[in-house]
C-alpha cells in the first residue's frame, strides 16, 4: 500500500513538471517567434479568375528553399525565419499553365501576404516566346522615397519587363536572370534588393530600392548579363528628413522697400529648410511665417530643394523693432523638428520712408581763391534709415571756374546699412580769377522713395 502511494506521487509530480514546462516557453522559443515569418498567398487562373488547386509553389531566397501545393481555394502558406527584412521570391507551376513569379518583403515576426499569382493556360507553341532581347521599366511604385527615419516610405518597388525580338514577354521556358545595380547615388547606405531575380511567366521581374541616410538622386539599372542587354537608367529621388535648426534659414528677396510710403508693395520671403545631414528637408514640410510689419502669407510647404516662400506686403502696422527702431520689421519662420519641437529663425526687412537731405556747411560758405572745400551731406528717410534700391543722388554745382568731385552721382543698392546715408564731395576753384563769384550747390534725390532736393549758396574767389 505504501509503495502504491509513492508511485502515484511520482507520476503526479512528473505530470505537473511537464505541464509547467509547456506553460513556460524557453528563451529560444521566444527568439524563434520574433524571427518567424508566415507568408500566405493565392493562385488563380489568369483568364477566368478561378482559384487553382494543386499548383506547385516554390519559395526561394530562404535557406532551405520550400515547396507547397495550393489548396482548393488556391491558397498556400510558408513559415520560415529571418533576422532582418528580406526580399523572397515565390514561383508557381502547374501543368497546362504558364508559370508565374512574384516577390514579397519578409519582415521578422509578421504575417506577410504575397501578391496574387496568375497562371495563364498554355495555348499553342506559336505563342511561346524566344529569348530575351530587351528589358525596360514596366512600373515603379514611387518616383521618390524618404531617407531612413524621415517618416516617408523608405523603399520603392521597380518592375522590369523582358521581351524577345518580336516584343513578346519572355515565358518561363525562356526565363532570364536579371541583375540589378545602382549606377549612382548620394552614398548614404542606399541599396537594392534582391541583387538578381528570375523573370516570371509574364517576363517581369521586380526589385526594391531602399533609402539610406542621405538625400539625392539614385540611378538604377537592370541587366541581363548573358544576353548582354540592359535597361535605361531609372532615376528615383531620395528626399531628406526632418528640419534641423542648424540648417534652417530665412531671408528676403529685397532688404529695403519703401513700405512706409505705399501699401501692397511685395517682397518675397524664402525659408531654406535642411535636415541634420545638410540635405533639403523632405518635400511638403510646412513652414509658418509672421511679421512685425505689414501682412505676410501664413504658411508654405517646402519643395524638393527645401525652399518655402511667401509674400510680405507693406501696410499697417508700420514696424518698430525693439533694438533697431522704427522701420525695421522682424520676419520669423517656424517649423517642427524631428522631436516635434518648434524651431524658428528670423530676418529683417526695412520699410523706408520719404527722403530727408542735409548739407554741411550750409548756405553762406566761402571758398578762397585757388582752394577747395569739402561738403558733407546725408540722404536718409525720416527715421534715419537708408532709402531703397533705385534711388539716385546727384550733386550739381553752378559757378564760374568751379569743379565738383567725390560723391556727386550715387545709385543706392538694396541695403539696410547706415553707411549708405552719408556722403561727401569737394568744390574746387580752378580759375585764375581773383574776383569773388557766386556758387550754387544742389543735392537732389529721385527714385521710389520720392523726389527731394536741397540748394545751398555761397561764394568763391576770396
What does the model show?
By secondary structure, the chain is mostly beta strands. The chain has 4 domains: 33-122, Carboxypeptidase-like, regulatory domain (Immunoglobulin-like), CATH 2.60.40.1120; 126-239, Sandwich (Immunoglobulin-like), CATH 2.60.40.10; 245-351, Sandwich (Immunoglobulin-like), CATH 2.60.40.10; 355-460, Immunoglobulin-like. Strands 11, 13, 15, 17, 18 and 19 form a 6-stranded mixed sheet that branches. Strands 1, 4, 6, 8 and 9 form a 5-stranded mixed sheet that branches. A 5-stranded mixed sheet has the order 21-30-29-23-25, with no helix packed on it. Strand 2 (56-60) and strand 3 form a beta hairpin. The longest helix has 22 residues, at 2-23. The protein is elongated, with a radius of gyration of 40 Å. It starts with a helix and ends with a strand.
What gross morphology would you assign? elongated
CATH superfamily of the largest domain: Immunoglobulins
CATH class of the largest domain: Mainly Beta
Radius of gyration: 40 Å
Structural class: mainly beta
Largest sheet: 6 strands, mixed
Q: Summary?
A:
With 462 residues, the chain is mainly beta. It has 2 helices and 39 strands. Mean pLDDT is 89; it is low at 1-26.
Give short descriptive properties of this protein.
disordered N terminus, 462 residues, Immunoglobulin-like, mainly beta, 2 helices, 4 domains, six-stranded mixed β-sheet
Which SSEs are present, and which pair or pack?
Blueprint: H1 2-23, H2 27-35, E1 36-45, E2 56-60, E3 66-69, E4 75-81, E5 86-93, E6 97-98, E7 100-106, E8 111-113, E9 117-121, E10 134-140, E11 144-146, E12 155-163, E13 177-184, E14 191-193, E15 196-198, E16 204-210, E17 216-224, E18 229-230, E19 234-239, E20 248-252, E21 256-257, E22 266-273, E23 286-291, E24 295-296, E25 299-301, E26 307-313, E27 320-321, E28 325-326, E29 328-336, E30 342-351, E31 355-360, E32 365-367, E33 372-381, E34 392-398, E35 402-406, E36 409-411, E37 422-429, E38 437-446, E39 452-460
Parallel strand pairs: 1-8, 1-9, 11-19, 21-30, 32-39
Antiparallel strand pairs: 1-4, 2-3, 2-5, 5-7, 6-9, 10-12, 12-16, 13-15, 13-17, 14-16, 17-18, 17-19, 20-22, 22-26, 23-25, 23-29, 24-26, 27-28, 29-30, 31-33, 33-37, 34-36, 34-38, 35-37, 38-39
Amino acid at each position: 500500500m505504501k509503495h502504491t502511494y509513492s508511485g502515484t506521487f511520482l507520476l503526479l509530480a512528473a505530470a505537473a513538471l511537464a505541464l509547467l514546462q509547456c506553460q513556460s516557453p524557453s528563451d529560444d522559443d521566444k527568439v524563434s517567434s520574433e524571427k518567424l515569418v508566415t507568408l500566405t498567398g493565392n493562385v488563380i487562373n489568369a483568364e477566368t479568375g478561378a482559384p487553382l488547386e494543386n499548383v506547385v509553389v516554390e519559395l526561394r531566397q530562404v535557406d532551405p528553399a520550400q515547396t507547397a501545393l495550393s489548396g482548393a481555394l488556391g491558397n498556400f502558406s510558408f513559415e520560415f525565419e529571418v533576422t532582418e527584412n528580406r526580399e523572397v521570391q515565390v514561383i508557381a507551376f502547374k501543368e497546362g499553365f504558364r508559370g508565374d513569379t512574384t516577390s514579397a518583403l519578409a519582415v521578422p515576426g509578421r504575417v506577410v501576404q504575397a501578391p496574387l499569382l496568375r497562371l495563364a493556360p498554355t495555348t499553342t507553341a506559336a505563342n511561346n516566346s524566344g529569348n530575351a532581347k530587351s528589358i525596360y521599366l514596366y512600373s515603379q511604385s514611387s518616383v521618390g522615397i524618404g531617407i531612413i527615419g524621415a517618416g516617408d516610405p523608405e523603399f520603392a518597388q521597380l518592375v522590369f519587363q523582358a521581351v524577345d525580338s518580336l516584343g513578346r514577354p519572355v515565358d518561363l521556358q525562356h526565363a532570364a536572370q536579371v541583375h540589378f545595380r545602382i549606377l549612382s547615388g548620394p552614398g548614404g547606405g542606399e541599396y537594392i534588393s534582391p541583387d538578381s531575380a528570375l523573370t516570371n511567366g509574364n517576363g517581369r521581374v521586380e526589385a526594391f530600392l531602399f533609402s539610406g541616410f542621405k538625400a539625392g538622386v539614385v540611378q538604377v539599372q537592370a541587366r541581363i548579363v548573358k544576353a548582354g542587354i540592359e535597361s535605361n537608367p531609372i532615376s528615383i529621388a531620395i528626399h531628406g528628413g526632418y528640419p534641423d535648426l542648424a540648417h534652417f534659414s530665412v531671408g528676403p528677396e529685397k532688404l529695403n522697400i519703401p513700405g512706409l510710403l505705399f501699401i501692397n508693395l511685395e517682397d518675397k520671403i524664402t525659408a531654406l529648410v535642411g535636415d541634420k545631414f545638410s540635405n533639403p528637408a523632405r518635400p511638403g514640410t510646412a513652414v509658418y511665417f509672421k511679421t512685425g510689419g505689414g501682412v505676410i502669407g501664413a504658411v508654405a510647404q517646402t519643395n524638393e530643394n527645401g525652399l518655402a516662400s511667401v509674400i510680405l506686403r507693406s501696410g499697417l502696422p508700420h514696424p518698430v523693432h525693439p533694438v533697431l527702431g522704427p522701420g525695421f520689421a522682424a520676419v520669423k519662420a517656424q517649423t517642427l523638428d524631428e522631436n516635434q519641437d518648434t524651431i524658428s529663425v528670423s530676418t529683417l526687412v526695412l520699410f523706408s520712408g520719404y527722403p530727408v537731405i542735409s548739407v554741411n556747411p550750409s548756405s553762406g560758405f566761402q571758398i578762397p581763391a585757388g582752394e577747395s572745400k569739402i561738403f558733407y551731406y546725408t540722404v536718409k528717410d525720416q527715421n534715419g534709415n537708408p532709402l531703397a534700391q533705385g534711388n539716385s543722388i546727384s550733386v550739381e554745382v553752378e559757378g564760374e571756374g568751379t569743379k565738383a568731385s567725390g560723391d556727386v552721382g550715387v545709385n543706392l543698392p538694396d541695403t539696410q546699412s547706415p553707411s549708405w546715408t552719408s556722403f561727401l564731395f569737394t568744390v574746387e576753384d580752378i580759375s585764375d580769377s581773383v574776383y569773388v563769384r557766386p556758387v550754387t550747390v544742389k543735392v537732389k534725390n529721385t527714385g521710389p522713395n520720392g523726389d527731394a532736393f536741397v540748394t545751398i549758396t555761397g561764394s568763391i574767389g576770396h
